[in-house]
Structure formats: C-alpha cells, structure tokens
Amino acid sequence: MAAGREGGGKRGTWAPWALMSPAVLWLTLFFLVPVYFLLRTALSNVDFVGNTTFAWRWHNFSEAWTTYNSEFIRSFWYGALATLLCIALGYPLAYVIAVRGGRWRNMLLGLVVVPFFTSYLIRTLAWKTLLQDRGPFVSLLRDVHLIGANGRLLSTPAAVIGGLTYNFLPFMILPIYVSLEKIDLNLVAAAKDLYSNPWRAFRKVVLPLSLPGVFAGSLLTFIPASGDFVNASLLGSPQTSMIGNVVQGNFLATVNYPSAAAISFVFMAIILVLVLLYARVLGTEELSV
Amino acid sequence: MHDANFAIERGEFFAMLGPSGCGKTTTLRMIAGFETPTEGVIRLEGQDVSHVPPYRRNVNTVFQAYALFPHMNVWDNVAFGPRSRKVREAETKKRVGEILEIVRLTEFAKRKPAQLSGGQQQRVALARALVNFPSALLLDEPLGALDLKLRQAMQIELKRIQREVGITFIFVTHDQEEALTMSDRIAVMSLGFVEQIGTPEDIYHHPASVFVAGFIGSANLFRTHIDRRSDTETAVSIAGRPVVVPATDGDAVIAVGAPAIVMVRPERVRVVMAEPQNSSTGVPCTVTDLVFQGPVVRVALATADGQEVVAHIGADDQLPLLRPGDNVWAGWEGDAARLLPEPEPGRAPAEDSMIQPTPSPST
Question: Closest partner residue to B65 among A186, A208, A289, by Cβ?
Fold first, then answer.
C-alpha cells in the first residue's frame, strides 16, 4: 500500500506541471508581459505629443496619488458601499435559493444569471434611461416627496453606487449560494437539538460556514467595482468620477501614458493591501473549510 | 406511523429495531422534535412535549453522520450546547472536561472533526449530546458509518458510557445483533406498527409474531391449523404428523381450527435417523443441502409436503454422515417450539423470507 502510494507520488511529480503549463503560459504571455510593459511605461517620461521615454521616473507614482487622491478614495468608497449592498441584497437571496429553493433552485439561479445575456454597457444605458430626470423613478420619488421638486437621481453618487451594485450583484450571489448549498442541513438540526434557537443556529453554524462564499463574492465585486469606469461615466457626473475614469482620460484624452500606468499601479497596490486586510478580518482559517 | 404506544424507563438502554421504512427514525425524530405527530402525544418526564420545538426539549440526538460542526474544534463542538443554554463559562469548562474524559478524547480537544477517525468523531457526537445531561439521548443508527471491528468495539464502549452517565439511551437500528448486544429492551417495528417490546431474551425466545421471529435471528416457520388445545399444550400437525406445542406465558390465544404457525429456531433442531422419543417431537424430512459455516453446519431439509426446514448443527453435536437425498428426522424438544398467530394480510414477510439465514451484519 505504502509502496503503491510512493509510486503514485513519483508519477504525480510531472503531471501537475503538465496540467498547469497551458494556463501558466497564457498568463505569462498575456498578464506578466503586459504588466512588465505597464511598469516600464509608468517609469517613463512623456513629451508634449505623448511620446514616452524610459527614465526610472519613480516620481510618477507619488504624483498619481497626490493628484488624484480624491478619485482614489471615492473609488474604494463606492466599491465598498456597492459590495456591502451586494451582500445585503445577495445573501438573503442566495440563502433562500440554497435552503428553500427545492425544485425551483436551478430556475432561480438561471434568473440570477439572465442579465448577463445582454451586454454590460446596454444594461448600464438602460439604467440611465430609468433614472433620467423625466423617467418614472424620479417622478415617483418627487411625487412622494422623497426628493425635492428639482431633485434628480442621474449624476448622483447614489446612481453610480446603485449601478455598480446592480451590475455586480450576480458575482456576489453565486459564490454565496455555492457555499450555502454545501452546508449539511443536519448541522442546523444539530444546533437546534443543542438548544440553539433558529437565529443562534444561523449565527454560529450557517454564517461562519458561508463566510468563504462571502469572501469570494466580495473580491469578485469589490475589485471590479472599484476599478469600474462605465457606471461613473454613464450614470455619474464629473463630481462622481472614479479612478477608472481618470485612467481612461489619461490614456485617451490627454495621452499621458506614464501617468495612466502609474495610477493603475498605485490602484493595484492599494487593492492588494485592502484584500489582505479583509482576509485577515474574516479569518483565513474559515477559508480552508 | 400507526399505533406505537410505549413508555421508556429512566436510565434504560432502549432500542427501536426494524427494517428501513418501518417508522423507527420517524419515531425518533418525533421524540427529538424535528417532526410533529399528527395524532397522540409525546411525554418527556410526564410533560407533553409534542409541540415543543427541538431547542426547548431536554433531549439530545446523536445524528447518523454525527453532524459535527466542521469549523469548530472538539472542545467547542462539545461546549456548544452549554453555551446555547448560557451556562456559566466556568461550569461549561468543567462539564466539557469531564465528558471528554468519559469518552476518552481529552487529548483531542483542540482538533477539528476532519482530523479525527470515524470512531473518534462518533465519541465527539456522543460527548456533545451527553454534556447537556439530557432526559434522554437519541441515537440514530449511531454505528452505521463504522466498519465491523470498530462497530463491535463501539457497542461495548456505548454500553460502558451509558452505565457511567446513567442517562436514558434510545437508539434506532436495523442491525438485530447491535440491538441484542446493547439494549435493555427492544421495540421491534414494522410498517409503522410496534410488533413487540421486550428484553432481548424475551424477543428472541418468545417472539410475538412471525415478523419478529423472522427479523431477529432466523426461524423455521411451519404453517398449520390448531387441532386441539388445553391449558398446558396445543396439538397441531406438521407435514401430516401430530406435533404438540407446550403452552407458555404470553401465548396468543388461537381458536381451534384457526390457522397458526409453529416456530422453531434452527439451532434447536436436531437431525436424527430415527423418530424422536419422549419429550421430543419431529417430522420426517429429506436432506437437500449441507453448508459448512464455521461455527455450525447449516443443514437444509424438506418435509414431505415441501416445507423447508433449516438446522444449525454445532461441532459438539452428533451429526450423522449425511448426503443430500437422505431420509432423516428433524426433531426438537417440546419447549423449543412456539405457536404464533397467522400474520394479518399485508403485514406478513414475503413467503420466501420465511426462513432466512441470520442477516450478516457486515455492510
């Protein structure tokens, strides 16, 4: 038996590498190489027509932060709010589908994914139509005096955060659903048997066991939501501009590639730190269950 | 579930035994509070708890697959119940420590369930329930997930723990050997009915029905009619031979002329060459098959009218040299036979399972 396992181990030494190599090759070509060029660009000088020359210009990074710190902070703030809203909306929905879905489960999951059949851009444009000043929402909210007679939804932070929440909600629901669906319902029965009322059974058993899903969903929501520029440019105003819009502007409008590249790097670095902090808070131990 | 009316004594090791689908797990879940009886009541220490939710009932369950909380270590699993009840932390600590001692898991307290063997997980499940000092501990096929060797060891272990804590154990099993080994009393169930309740000896030697006789151990069942009856004995005929069955306590009263079934355990059947005398009775048979099974030789016989008879012959018994086709007598002492009523339609085991070899407990 031990000998057989030994043999299996030896045969297994090259197999994982062989299985990994296509993806490693792909990521090397299309991720590492571009990152290298991006880094080169970020350290370059730019002349008035947009030509770049490599110059170890570390100053670009500090400049990116000092010039655009309000956009940075706004991006992470909007991303975090959208993520929280996604958890608040997505967790109960995923819970109902996973625990009470029964034979409707697959259909309900299908409905969650249905919006993906239309393009992201079209969906956001549809939101723009819904939220416009003479649209149904605004008139309803004006009628019940929730917003003033000249109040509007479009071009407000609420519209941008709402759009982000709407667009990334499925990325929150699906991982939470997967982690909830894996939980053995006997564990809930056991908790109730051990004198826990339903709420305590949820807090002590279901919630901790579903945290890996919440964590995965948060990453899938927070990272793209913070870096998003579509929602801010279609639903927002210059006052709600996010870091994605700044990068876009630097690349396409002012043709300042080094600045755009440096902003991207600062953004990546901050995201990385935030994600690591978040993993610390949620507890890495739960992630291995 | 149909009529199931029984009382379980405090401190008793009580088994509900039956084939799958007989209602034993449903009964257990009703006692635990996961299901509500449509009729009747469940009383716990005299109080009607039929509509009390599980978390307010003073019973605890050991689940079939243990249902240990995978994100908690052994200690936290065991401490879950006391903490739910807001027992003071010092008291919880003392109780958890004690119970881990009893189930011999003290040095595993910091491990997660996934890092334990099946037998250890089983003991954690036990400790997690017992730490609450429940009025009754419910065990749903507690040993079903373990292999044969471990299961036999755990049977003895469970019995030891039960004696040590003195808590009522109610456990559900389909394994008759498990029930016989551990229980003080057994309720044999079938199709939502309780067929019989009694001590293991009672149920084995004095089964109340054909179902019980066939489900616990194996049984030879002869279909017959009552010819005559008195206070001390009943006369019937098997394969055309008159056979007398002495009366015992708790016999069903069967009218003269009514159909009845005579049961004899295979280990009580003797294979002899001449007609049995004195207190013994017997029927002439033909040998159909001989199988060596280790402790016993299983001799299959057939009466003249085609009824099958099985005899288990031990090594110390005198076994004549037999071949299939030999004409012999299947004999037994008078008190080895037991008279059973004809099963009601729909409740009889299938004809071909009337004589069943001891179901092997290995799964």
Answer: A186
Q: Is residue A112 part of a domain?
A: yes
Pairing label, strands B280-292, B337-341: unpaired
Distance from CA of B18 to the nearest CA of A (A): 23
- For chain A positions 77-96, those within 8 Å of chain B (CB to CB) are none
Looking at A126-135, A173-182, A194-203, A217-226, which range is the least confident one? A126-135
Domain presence at residue A12: no
Contact B60 A193 (CB under 8 A): yes
The residue of chain A nearest to residue B54, with distances taken between CA atoms, is A193
Residue-wise pLDDT tens digits, B129-178: 999 989 889 998 888 777 888 888 888 888 888 888 888 999 898 888 88
pLDDT of residue A272: 92
CB contact, 8 Å: A6 with chain B? no
Q: Kindly report the nearest CA distance between residue A209 and chain B, in angstroms.
A: 7
pLDDT in tens, B91-138: 999 999 999 998 889 999 999 999 999 889 989 999 999 999 898 899
Q: Is residue A149 part of a domain?
A: yes
Contact A200 B132 (CB under 8 A): no
Residue A204: CATH number of its domain:
1.10.3720.10
Two tokens at B299? 């001799």
**A107 lies in some domain:** yes
**Would an 8 Å CB–CB cutoff place B115 in contact with chain A?**
no
Q: What is the pTM of this model?
A: 0.76
Q: Which of B58, B62, B83, B84 to mutate to test the interface with A (most CBs of A within 10 A)?
A: B84
Contact status, residue B362 vs residue B222, Cβ threshold 8 Å = no
- Give the chain A residue whose CA is nearest to the CA of B86: A195
**Per-residue b/e over A138-164, b at no fewer than 16 CB within 10 Å?**
beeebeeeebeeeebbbbbbebbbbbb
| Nearest-angstrom CA–CA distance, B29 and B274 | 55
- Give A202→chain B minimum CA distance, Å: 12
Q: Which two tokens stand for residue A151?
A: 């109040």
Q: A195 contacts in B (CB within 8 Å)?
A: 55-56, 81, 84-85, 132
When divided into structural domains, chain A yields a total of 1
Residue type present at position A20: M
User: Which residues of chain A have a CB within 8 Å of the CB of B52?
Assistant: none
Confidence check on the interface: ipTM exceeds 0.90, yes or no:
no
A185 → chain B, closest CA residue: B67
Owning domain of residue A169? 68-288
- Run of H or E residues at B174: none
